[in-house]
Amino acid sequence: MDMTQAALGEAIGVTFQQVQKYEKGTNRVGASRLQQIADVLEVPVSHFFEALPGGAENGAGVAGARSVLNPELTEFVSSDQGMALIRSFSRIKDDKVRARLINLVKALAEQDRS
């Protein structure tokens, strides 16, 4: 992982200052952004949790984190369709477009319940 903050920032569509804030913990890294970073660095998301107590090096890692997540959410993000949706959604930069898409999905889900 020999990459500058500027190069990583450019690859994920943020400034190098934003990458610094992620590294320092000043700004929260969302799940979709973390997936983008992992994709650019060509590492699994669990790589970022290895040094934490109970992390991947201790056998817990992402599997340990999954135990506290909603089972439906875990199933969704573990599926090919879920990951495709997450990756595609994370590439949408316009907040208004994201909001419209969320409303569309909610409406479709509500319609599907009927």
Automatic annotation (TrEMBL):
Molecular function GO labels: DNA binding
Residue span(s) of domain HTH cro/C1-type: 3-48
Keyword Cell inner membrane: yes or no?
A: no
Q: Which UniProt keywords apply?
A: Plasmid
Check the record and name the InterPro entries matching this protein.
Cro/C1-type_HTH, Lambda_DNA-bd_dom_sf
Q: Does the keyword Isomerase apply?
A: no
Q: Which Pfam families match?
A: HTH_3 (PF01381)
PROSITE patterns, per the entry: HTH_CROC1
- SMART domains named among the record's database cross-references: HTH_XRE
> What protein name does the entry list?
Transcriptional regulator, Cro/CI family
